[in-house]
Amino acid sequence: MGKIYVVGIGPGGPGDTTPRVEAALAASDVLVGYTTYIQLVRERYPEKEIVATPMTTEVERCRACRELALGGKTVSMVCSGDAGVYGMAGLVHQVCRDFPELEIQVLPGVTAATAGAALLGAPLVHDFAAVSLSDALTPWETIARRLLLAAEGDFVLCLYNPASKKRPNTLRQAAELLLRRRAPDTPCGLARRIGREGEESWLCTLGELGEQPADMFTTVFVGNSQTQVVNGRLVTPRGYEGKGTL
Amino acid sequence: MGKIYVVGIGPGGPGDTTPRVEAALAASDVLVGYTTYIQLVRERYPEKEIVATPMTTEVERCRACRELALGGKTVSMVCSGDAGVYGMAGLVHQVCRDFPELEIQVLPGVTAATAGAALLGAPLVHDFAAVSLSDALTPWETIARRLLLAAEGDFVLCLYNPASKKRPNTLRQAAELLLRRRAPDTPCGLARRIGREGEESWLCTLGELGEQPADMFTTVFVGNSQTQVVNGRLVTPRGYEGKGTL
Asked: Which of A41, A195, B6, B44 has the fewest Cβ atoms surrounding its Cβ within 10 A?
């Protein structure tokens, strides 16, 4: 009986991959992953067997891990960011449901929420909600409802999958919903290709958010009612101002 | 003019600290941090100057960083987990507001939400909200309102700072609020001392959550309406079931 590691390699370069994840990759016979992400580790482990499958074949990818592990291999399911945030950690457990004897270990990584936040400053220092704008697996009504309730609760918002070629308008739709509950001058930020070639980040207001050029490699941050721009950085206060002079 | 790195060393051991953060620590003249967390890195960098300040002196700690950097030192503000999630990244920017020429770089780390999730299985695979139950800087009314709205939106919840010696009842109060919107058999999980000596994690139901022995080193997860227990792990489906047979 083999073993499945489900690992998040962080947003981009090897500098954001934890030593525990590197050790799991090094200890694996096979690295399995989405074609684009597996490229990020392939060159670091040229000797490993690689199973790369395209997007929309997630169930097959998890089954491949299961079969390899049942056959005695040590396998790493490689995800970008953190494997447990919109990653494969859940599906691997579901696909292996009938094999409780199979060892599955999820190893955490740096997710786009915290990596993007670090690039932009400190938007997530107070309570926040992560919402994926992809309606591939979730009805848009559920997404819209969550956006409105999170805005009503004055959560900072971190939006994953803000747009894609098939969904060029979802960020605009989300911004319009949020404008029902938040002021148009609410500070927002976008981070793109975090930790990879072409990394960029920039600020805008909620009123301008709908027109921003976001894609599948972009993570979007919408401030709460207290979020400020401090020397060009997006900063959400935690409340220390109330405790004395800053 | 020096530089300030604001770094998250991850939840516990060096295996969860990213290489970029290690490089920043190694490049720093001084390591500044909360007494408990700075111990975690002190032994790794015995030659560094250390400035350790106790809890509730966060503003002073950030000012110490600022003064050291203005004096030409390279300083790392050391946080546990990720520096931008209930960490010092925001306050450092605020305290340095009048010194725009001072270089501040936040480096992301593995936060307790994703590290605890990995220990428990995969609870955060779908939309989630992070809420701190500490009312030291946030009125309890705001916290309660956020819990109710997040529950209404069927977000998975990740609760930071669920209890402390001064606040032995906050997790019970939070559980009672959530029970107004979620079924008592909603699967929950707790992770304690993640990545450190004495690490433990366990599952319970929302009905049992209020009685769990949580402390400042515990992170709590409350499932959404779809979260399941799969072979002893807490798993939130992302929706692939609808796409074909698992």
From this structure: B44
Torsional class of B244: left (φ above 0), alpha (ψ -120 to 50), beta (otherwise)? left
pLDDT single digits (tens) B17-48 = 999 999 999 999 999 999 888 888 988 899 99
Distance (Å, rounded) from C-alpha A224 to C-alpha A188? 9
**pLDDT tens digit string along B106-118?**
999 999 999 999 9
Q: Do B125 and A84 touch (CB under 8 A)?
A: yes
Q: How far is B41 from A30, CA to CA, in rounded Å?
A: 33
CB contact under 8 A, B153 and A145: yes
Closest partner residue to B15 among A20, A233, A238, by Cβ?
Answer: A20
- Per-residue pLDDT at B95 exceeds 90: yes
| Residues of chain B neighbouring A90 (CB-CB closer than 8 A) | 121-122, 125-126, 235-238
Q: The complex's ipTM?
A: 0.96
Q: How far apart are CA B210 and CA B135, in angstroms?
A: 17
Which domains, and CATH codes, for chain B?
3-110 (3.40.1010.10), 113-235 (3.30.950.10)
- Residue A124's Cβ-count burial label (10 Å; 0-12, 13-18, 19+) is buried
Cβ distance of B122 and A230 shorter than 8 Å:
no
Return the structure tokens found at A202.
């920039």
Q: Which residues of chain A make contact with B108, given a CB cutoff of 8 A?
A: 11, 16, 110, 114-115, 117-118
